[in-house]
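testing teh design pipeline on a random one, pls ignore if ur not involved
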């Protein structure tokens, strides 16, 4: 596995205090405390003013203040979009193994790809002052970014490096992954290509892969012939259904690119039942290199997203920072995924 490290500089960060919220809202610290603890008699206008200032500044109350001598507890907040998606358990395995010989313990929050839920999970996690934060993705709401930037602890954004990290990011370039897959498909001679994937407004990494994929096709004068999107968990049944529908609309397609392996596997099983010659009549590829699917009748072409390594490296950074090391600069750590041709993509 190749890692490249890019040094960047970020301004110093410190946790927000009651005084900061008091100054921003123009009311006393005592009133701020009452509002944020939902105690005492405070007017609706004052309450709204304090809540707006706290949200804008990224203030999170310290629930361990006064009860512990330490400024944080030995927990690492891990915030991911889903436990149903088979990608993230491998990330958690990497995190858990890296922390096994330390005093740190991971605690997991799930956002369901919803920015408002991410805000809520972050607020609750940060109120207990964890030793560090590992959070999926680089795209967050203004409120979440403010809380992360003012947390006063290491923040490691994972899975993606296509953007500006708040602190440190560890992941792959999804635009590059999409580009590499498109280059392999073009080199193999496929020209009539269909795409199937998740509805992407909130799945930013899938969107970036799609952007890299379509832009690379366009440079060779190729447009996506058909595309279809779904919501909900990745499923074999969904892949079968979408593949059947797309080929009914466009029977002359010669390649199907799926945004993940699970729907790709569904498409593969459907085509095998139909007696289609794979990969000569039609080629297929997915993404993620899910180990569970290695028992399929044909090996699906795919790309490894370095999930375990990402989790492991992110946790190692947290542990190192807690021990007082790695404090001179922040890093962007880029991992390089591997393309597997399997049995569904012609290797030239």
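output:
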């Amino acid at each position: 596995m190749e890692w490249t490290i890019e040094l960047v500089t970020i301004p110093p960060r410190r946790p927000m205090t009651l005084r900061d919220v008091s100054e921003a809202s123009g009311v006393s610290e005592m009133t701020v405390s009452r509002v944020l603890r939902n105690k005492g008699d405070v007017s609706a206008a004052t309450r709204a003013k304090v809540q707006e200032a706290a949200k804008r500044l990224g203030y999170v109350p310290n629930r361990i203040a006064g009860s512990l001598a330490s400024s944080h507890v030995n927990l690492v907040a891990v915030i991911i979009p889903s436990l149903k998606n088979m990608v993230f358990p491998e990330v958690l395995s990497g995190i858990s193994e890296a922390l096994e010989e330390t005093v740190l313990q991971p605690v997991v929050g799930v956002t369901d790809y919803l920015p408002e839920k991410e805000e809520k999970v972050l607020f609750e996690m940060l109120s207990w002052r964890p030793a560090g934060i590992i959070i999926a993705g680089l795209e967050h709401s203004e409120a979440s970014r403010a809380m992360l930037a003012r947390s006063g602890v290491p923040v490691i954004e994972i899975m993606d490096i296509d953007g500006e990290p708040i602190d440190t990011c560890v992941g792959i370039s999804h635009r590059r992954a999409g580009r590499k897959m498109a280059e392999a498909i073009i080199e193999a001679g496929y020209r009539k290509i269909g795409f199937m994937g998740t509805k992407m407004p909130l799945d930013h990494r899938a969107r970036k892969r799609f952007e890299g994929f379509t832009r690379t096709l366009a440079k060779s004068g190729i447009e996506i012939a058909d595309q279809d999107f779904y919501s909900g968990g990745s499923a074999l049944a969904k892949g079968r259904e979408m593949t059947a529908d797309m080929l009914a609309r466009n029977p002359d397609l010669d390649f199907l690119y799926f945004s993940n392996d699970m729907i790709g596997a569904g498409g593969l099983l459907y085509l095998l039942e139909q007696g289609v010659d794979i990969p000569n009549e039609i080629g297929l590829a997915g993404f993620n290199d899910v180990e569970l699917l290695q028992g399929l009748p044909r090996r699906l072409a795919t790309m490894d997203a370095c999930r375990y390594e990402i989790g492991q490296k992110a946790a190692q950074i947290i542990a190192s920072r807690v021990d007082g090391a790695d404090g001179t600069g922040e890093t962007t750590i880029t991992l390089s995924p591997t393309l597997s041709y399997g049995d569904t993509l012609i290797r030239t």
